[in-house]
Amino acid sequence: MCELRGAVGYVQFQKLRKTLERTRAIKKQLVEALAGTPGIELPLVADPQGELGITFAIYLPSVEEAHRFSKALAAEGVSNGTMYNQGVPDRHIYRNWDYVLNKWTSDRTGYPWAAPYYKGKVEYSPDMCPRTLDYLSRVIKISIHQHWTNADTDDVMRAVGKVAAALYGSERATA
After folding, report:
1. Helical axes 3-34 vs 150-168, angle rounded to 10°
2. 116 upstream amide cis, omega within 30 of 0
3. CB within 8 A of 78, min separation 6: which ones?
4. Domain chopping of the chain, boundaries
5. Which residues contact 130 (CB under 8 A, 6 or more apart)?
6. Mean pLDDT of 85-89
């Protein structure tokens, strides 16, 4: 790395703690406000203090309800995504790993799939983890930005509460 890139990286790294403090605070506020909202489920987080807080996710009971909830949130001005509506395949999801599913390689020897020491016979398929796909198909993701104001956070809380109330008949989270 050249000195200029190192200097820029060093300055950016110094900003990281403040950025993460902000995104974590926003996430915590969203979770506390929306926990227990009828119709939605919040994912379990093993280490809330250790996560980045850059994404707020909710689970819906079915794929169809996730689509309906997502569209309603978008109509309320909240940018969000589901596994199926982002336009670009989400490379975090294994079913979009063409290079693994099709065992693609740019290595002339076929590495790693044809390595002489590889004794496996694993066949990968897009539907090999049905429980994982079930969870992913029912989740709505809202990206949290460090520059959100308190009003932005309140808008997201109100929108999620409003949509939940409209779809599941609860006024709990709309206040």
Report:
1. 40
2. no
3. 142, 155, 156, 159, 160
4. 18-90+137-168
5. none
6. 67
pLDDT digits (tens, 9 = 90+) for 39-70: 999 999 999 888 999 999 999 999 999 999 99
Q: What is the mean pLDDT of residues 7-22?
A: 92
pTM for this prediction: 0.81
Q: Structurally, what CATH architecture does the domain formed by 18-90+137-168 represent?
A: Alpha-Beta Complex (3.90)
pLDDT reading at 72 higher than 60 = yes
